[in-house]
Structure formats: structure tokens, C-alpha cells
Amino acid sequence: MRARSRVRFGALLTAAAALASVLMPATNAAAREAAPRTAVLDGKRLQLTKLRLDRGDPQLKRSVRDLTARADAWIDKGPWTVVDKPKPAPGGDVHDYLSQAPYWWPTQAPTADNPWGCPYEQRDGQRNPEVDTGTDRQDVEKVFDSTYDLTLAWYYTGKKRYAEKAASVLRTWFLDPATRMNPNLDHAQFIPCKYDGRAIGIIDFSQSYTSVVDAIAILGTGAPGWSKSDRSAMAKWNKDFLGWLVDSDFGKQERAAQNNHGTFYDLQVAALAHATGDTALARRTVLDARARRIDPQIAGDGSQPQELARTRSWHYSTFDLVAYTRLAAIGRNVGVDLWAHQGPDGQSLFKAVGYLLPAATGAAKWPHPELEFHRFAASDVVHAAADAGDEAARKAVPKLETPPGGDLWALRPAAEQLDSIAG
Predict the structure, then answer these.
(1) What pLDDT score does 86 carry?
(2) Is there a contact between 176 and 154 (Cβ–Cβ < 8 Å)?
(3) The pLDDT of residue 87
(4) Which residue of 132, 172, 180, 348 shows the fewest CB atoms closer than 10 Å?
């Protein structure tokens, strides 16, 4: 009797295994893959999402369609390079990144003797269109966005054209000797006839480069077209860039900033430190953000006074929280729960997101100055708070406005700035 039972049981196991291999072959293969060692994105969560997609999750399939539509739009564009600008940065090296301060405008009509129309004056929140021509600013945004979209599309679909395109974009901008960018931001956000570069120009990278750091980690799981030498060279570039951020005068000035510039600086340093193996620096940066950033920059009611003082107060309030929530995600990797922190007046990331909820859900009008209000700008930071355990944020998620191009949170659960200051 026992022998027949064992035979019968063994036959059932064999049949079940055969059925599983037919129904979920991709799932088994995906389960054997290592989770990406990402800084902001949760690599294990990405892996589980990929498993769910392999099993046919209909909601994820819809999200992947939105993602691949974005990735497909990049296939025939680029790659881009810093050496393509009409004239080099003030230092004369075409490999140096150059951008122009967006809110500074000429006060005179250009002449032969004064070709820039100097002196320049500041108009907060009003973007001077000339900053989008003649510098690297627009191209570097395309590098950041395309790399992220293409890499995620490869990860979830396995289509090698996405990975190969992302690799080409990265090699051209960062690695190839003829076209690479020097790992510094000495000439970011220059002001004609005034400054050859400024510390606040670091935000050109800090607001989005952490997405590239994560894309590199995802490509490192075995993407076609991204070689071992590419990985080593990119790690060297990131290490050199981190050194510049920490040691340069501009980096030290940006670290001292007491608004979103300081928050984004911390985010970039922590992400690069994690990616290059300096876990101690990453952990220290996240820990220091409690007293250095949250306590002085977020009020007891959750408002962000420095951001509310801007003409684009909604944009900058959500913008700063993009940095905070991404920094909190890095904290997860280095053993720091930034969401749990409460300042002496009750300041916290949960309160800061809660301050946005009435306007984010459409329940109330945003009560502060805003030149161009977009409700969807808060969608990702509300998602982040909900995932971190905030019940009010969780209830708000179904009431959020879907961002242009679809809600991709399920595929890349890390906040992005969803509205554009370029408008």
C-alpha cells in the first residue's frame, strides 16, 4: 500500500512540475536572476514585479505598454554629447558640461559691443528661452530620461534593442574619449557677463541623475550591449563625479543650501556613494538629513516655507519631496528609516506629503502662489507615502490625477518630478 502511494504521489509531483514548466517558464527563469543593486528603486521589488508580469498581471501589462511607448520614442533619437554645443564652456574645454541660469534675462538689446544684452536680471519662475539653445541642458535631460525609460523597458520585456540603445546613450555621453563629459559641473547655470558657473547648477544633475545610477545597476544584471568594461568605466566616472561633488567649492556650497538644492544634493551624494560602494557615506548622508534638512526645512504643519515663497510654490513643494522620498528610499538600503523621523515640532515627511493631499486629490485649491498648477505633480510623492505606510496617502491614491503618459508607479516605484518647470 505504501509503495503504491509513493508511486501515485510521485506521479502527481511529476505532473505538477510539468504543468508548472508549461505555465510559468519565464517566471522560473526570472526567479533565478539576481535582483538589481539599485540605489533608489527597490531591486527586490522590481524583481517581484517582473515575476508578476511574467504571470500575466493585466494591470502591469497596461503599464508596460505605456512604458514601451516612451522607450520606442527614444529608439531613433540621440545619442547626445557635450561636444556638440556651438561653443565650449567658459573654460574652453568642449568636454565640460555647460548650462545657463534659467531665470536670468538680458536687460538690454544685444549689440555688437554687448552681444548678450548685459547686464542680466533675475525673474523667478520665468524661464528664459535662450537657455534651451547653445548649451548642454536640453541634451542631458534627454540622456537621463531616455536611459531610464529604455533600461526599464528592457528589464520588463527582455527586448535587447532597448538595452543596446541605452548603452549607446551612456557610452556616448559619459565614456567614449571623443564625446565624453568631464566629471564636473564647473560651468553649470552660468550667467552671461556675471558668472562662469554656479554651485546651484549642480541641480541640473541632482534632480535626475539618480535615475541613471539606477539604470546602470539594472543594465548590470546582464543587459546586452553593456559590457564589463562599460560597467567598470561608468563606475570610475561616478566615483570621480562623487569626489568632485564632495570636495569642490561648488559642492560644498550646494551642501550648505537650505532649500530643495540641499535636499537634492544629499540625494545625489547618497545615491552615488551607495553605487560606488561607500556605504558609510551613503548612510551618514541619510542620517544627517534628519536634522540638516527635515527639521529646518519642513514646518510643524508639513509646509515647506522656502518652497512656498517661490512663484511656483506647488511645483517646488512637490519637487523638494521628490528628493526627500528618493533619499528615504536610499535609506532603506543602508538601514535608515527616514519616514519614521519626527522633528522637535512634529516635522516629518508624512506631514509634508499630507500638506499636499487636499490639492493633490482635488478636494481643495492650492492656497499659495503658483504660475502653472498641475495637480498630477504630486502623484508620485503621494504614492511614496502610501507605500511607506501612511493611511491618508493610501486613501488618496485613487483620487490622484494620472500624469501624462500614464501612471508608471507600479513599474518604477520611486518619485519623479512629473510637471516641467520649462512648461
Answers:
(1) 85
(2) no
(3) 83
(4) 132
Q: What is the pTM of this model?
A: 0.89
Ramachandran angles phi, psi of 418, nearest 5°: -90, -20
**Containing H/E element for 297?**
helix 295-297
Which amino acid appears at position 80 of this protein? W
Give the max Cα distance, the chain.
104
Residues forming a β-bridge with 357: none
Cα distances from 356 to residues 172, 259, 324, in angstroms, run 40, 17, 14
Long-range contacts from 124-131, C-beta under 8 angstroms, 24+ separation: 124/310, 124/311, 125/310, 125/311, 125/312, 125/371, 126/311, 126/371, 127/102, 127/103, 127/421, 127/422, 127/423, 128/100, 128/102, 128/103, 128/104, 130/100, 131/99, 131/100, 131/101, 131/102
How far is Cα 169 from Cα 77, in angstroms, rounded to an integer? 10
User: Residue 33 has what pLDDT?
Assistant: 75
Question: How does DSSP classify residue 304?
Answer: -
The pLDDT assigned to 188 comes to 97
DSSP string, 3-63: HHHHHHHHHHHHHHHHHHHHH-HHHHHHHHSPPP--SSS-HHHHHHHHHHHHTT-HHHHHH
pLDDT at position 422, please? 57
Contact 147, 211 (CB under 8 A): yes
* Cell representation of residue 108: 538690454
CA distance 188 to 203: 9
Return d(Cα 297, Cα 320) in angstroms, integer.
Answer: 10
Cα angle vertex 353, ends 348, 356, to 5°?
A: 135
374: alpha, beta or left, given left = phi > 0 and alpha = psi -120 to 50? beta
Going by DSSP bridges, is the β-strand pair 104-106/187-190 parallel, antiparallel, or unpaired?
A: unpaired
**Integer angstrom CA distances of residue 146 from 47, 80, 337:** 21, 11, 31
Specify the pLDDT at position 120.
Answer: 94
| Single-letter amino acid code for the residue at 264 | F
pLDDT of residue 125: 84
Give me the average pLDDT of each 10-residue run along the chain (423 residues).
39 41 44 85 97 96 97 98 91 94 92 89 89 90 98 98 98 98 97 94 97 98 97 98 98 97 98 98 98 98 97 97 98 97 97 98 97 97 98 98 95 95 54
* Residue tagged 544633475 (cell numbers): 205
Query: Burial code of 380-407, b = ≥16 C-beta within 10 A, e = fewer?
Result: bbbbbbbbbebeebeebbeebbebeeeb
pLDDT value at position 104? 93
